[in-house]
Design brief:
disordered N terminus
Length: 636
């Protein structure tokens, strides 16, 4: 099916090029940008897919590929999200989102035609090298951290090889399993030994990373393999499940830390369920809080969603309380569920189509497992089981955003489509080829500009941290593009950075203008609202300032900057009770302790309490407030 055969020199060059890029993917990074892999790898893939299409122009696209449900679903997914962008307004983020879908589509079409010539083994071996290299980097990082480090366990939490996130590392290794299996069953003893080493290292890394979504994915994968391998033999199925249960139990007893962690997780799940049932979500449930808010977003925008790339700008409308972004020091960028993400941004049809992509892969894989009567059938069983597990990961994480995950997924699409079309005849469509190559050239330009802007945006953040405001403005002039880069990866408008730089230079009028412009780009950004309100206060428009501070606190009562500013205004206007209420609402003292409270907060609280006490406005209600707040203050 996928063995190496002789093929044309240009196509051979395409194979070698793809294999080289996949093999060295762990090394394609740029540590001088915030997300060291996202923009550089998408740029790499944009250039790669353009080159292989040019090299194999008449071999890269087969017209019958476009009749397959997976390709049709990808075309419809792109089209619906394009309409959603038109309806909700084009933005830099929506263009970037559409370009990612297009790259997934272009690779899927290429691999669907490419794998019909039985070229899969070379690509499979490159994924073996990718997995080995990623794991070696991961364990080298752990070794480096272990040397004279008192915070070893904390440091390990942040290690992810070169995948930017440890859970993403675990999920891409999981997605590589079918490719490892195929190479193992079709290659020499050397490759078999390498794959055994990879699997051992992979299991060790899973235990260290402790990704719940990957553990669940492994569980579903193993169970499905057992059920379909021994279909009709209930005794063997039950025996296999009992053996797995015994091994898992033995692991817990041999490693008390694993048991302790597992036990703690189970207790926390029970507590979370109780909090959900009682509708008392708190700060310990940030992901559940995001799910609930995203469901509300979907219900409010069922047809075309909020627009591709707009989830992170729209989510503050539903409140940031009990999310990681409630204090303004972090930013929620995604709902941690690909399926919810597609439903929220593109609407109901977008979400359904994304689900259909996996359903079609499952259907085709299972079909080939039953149809093929030789040992190759087990490859499709592993593929089926892996995609079943990957669905679990996509429900609980965000692999659809990541370039490497999408490349591997395109390969999976290509495998099942090429197997389906293997015996069919087809003609090359010149028009489709020309259109695709034209769009691919534009795509390279888009990702090149974004990568360039990301590099200079990192410099802007460095200038911001050192207070070099003039160079910060110069860096923004290079990074900013009205249509393609007007907002950074934290959903912060670049206009806000301009405003901050001018404000710190003492040019309040220029800052005021830029903060207003930032507000039009993202009107729900806590810092944008807060700084715009401060400029209104500088211009003595206290009513507008209070209105904006209240708007910010409506999004997140825990945002201390706006709370302190509003409390100061209330205190200035001698509304001391309101001032104290705002201060108290901004902190959750059942979770936080006094060490987390700023000196400015404590001083303002103390001064306001003293002013209230001296104001002689000591009605019975205010006497109780003073008494309660004094009791609270003693706890600080």
């Amino acid at each position: 099916m996928f063995s190496l055969y002789n093929f044309s020199s240009k196509k051979n060059l395409s194979v070698i090029l793809i294999a080289i890029i996949v093999s060295i993917l762990p090394l394609i990074i740029n540590t001088n940008i915030d997300d060291m892999v996202l923009s550089i790898r998408y740029l790499t893939f944009s250039v790669l897919i353009l080159i292989v299409y040019l090299l194999s122009f008449k071999k890269a696209i087969k017209s019958n590929v476009f009749k397959h449900p997976i390709i049709i679903s990808l075309i419809l997914l792109f089209t619906i999200n394009l309409f959603s962008s038109l309806y909700n307004g084009f933005s830099a983020d929506s263009i970037y989102f559409l370009s990612r879908i297009f790259i997934l589509f272009a690779f899927s079409v290429f691999f669907s035609s490419f794998f019909t010539s039985d070229n899969f083994l070379v690509i499979g071996k490159s994924i073996v090298i990718f997995s080995l290299l990623s794991l070696l980097i991961y364990f080298i990082q752990i070794y480096i951290v272990s040397i004279d480090n008192n915070n070893f366990m904390k440091e390990v939490e942040s290690i992810s090889a070169t995948m930017a996130n440890k859970n993403l590392l675990a999920s891409i290794l999981f997605l590589s399993l079918p490719f490892l299996f195929y190479v193992y069953t079709t290659s020499s003893i050397i490759w078999k030994k390498i794959i055994i080493l990879i699997v051992v290292l992979m299991l060790c890394s899973f235990l260290i990373i402790q990704s719940k979504s990957v553990f669940l994915a492994l569980f579903f994968m193993i169970i499905s393999i057992i059920i379909f391998s021994f279909r009709g033999n209930l005794k063997i199925i039950l025996s296999s499940i009992l053996i797995l249960s015994f091994i898992s139990t033995l692991l817990f007893f041999l490693n008390p830390m694993v048991y302790k962690q597992f036990n703690a997780e189970i207790k926390e799940i029970v507590k979370k369920k109780e909090r959900i049932d009682n509708k008392i979500i708190n700060e310990k449930d940030p992901r559940i809080s995001l799910y609930i808010k995203t469901f509300d977003m979907i219900k409010d925008n069922p047809l075309l969603g909020v627009g591709p790339g707009n989830w992170r700008k729209e989510i503050p409308r539903y409140g940031l309380k009990n999310t990681m972004g409630q204090k303004g020091d972090k930013f929620v960028q995604r709902p941690h569920s690909d399926f919810l993400w597609f439903f929220a941004e593109g609407g109901f049809l977008s979400g359904i189509l994304y689900i259909f992509l996996f359903v079609f892969v499952l259907r085709e894989s299972l079909y080939f497992y039953y149809k093929i009567k030789n040992h190759k059938r087990y490859f499709f069983l592993i593929l089926f089981s892996c995609i079943l597990g990957y669905i679990v990961i996509s429900m609980l994480d965000f692999p659809s955003e990541r370039p490497t995950h999408n490349l591997f997924l395109a390969m999976v699409f290509g495998i099942v489509i090429s197997e389906k079309n293997k015996k069919e005849y087809y003609n090359f469509n010149n028009l489709v080829g020309v259109i695709l190559i034209f769009v691919l050239i534009i795509n390279v330009s888009l990702h090149g500009l974004r990568y360039w802007s990301d590099i200079h945006m990192k410099k802007v953040l460095n200038y911001k941290s050192t207070g070099d405001w003039q160079n910060m403005i110069r860096g923004l002039d290079i990074s900013y593009n009205k249509y393609l880069y007007d907002i950074d990866n934290t959903s912060t408008p670049l206009m806000w950075y301009y405003g901050l730089a001018y404000f710190n230079q003492g040019n309040i009028n220029m800052a005021f203008d830029y903060f207003k412009r930032a507000y039009t780009v993202n009107p729900y950004h806590l810092h944008v609202i807060n700084n715009l309100a401060t400029c209104y206060a500088y211009n003595n428009d206290y009513n507008k300032a209070k209105e904006l501070y209240q708007e910010s606190l409506l999004i997140s009562p825990r945002f201390e900057e706006s709370a302190l500013n509003l409390a100061t205004l209330y205190s200035y206007e001698k509304e001391y009770v309101k001032s104290l209420d705002v201060l108290l609402e901004s902190r959750n003292f059942s979770v936080e302790n006094s060490s987390n409270i700023s000196e400015f907060y404590i001083n303002l609280f103390n001064e306001t309490l003293l002013k209230l006490h001296k104001s002689y406005d000591l009605t019975e209600k205010n006497l109780k407030i003073v008494s309660d707040k004094k009791k609270f203050y003693k706890k600080l």
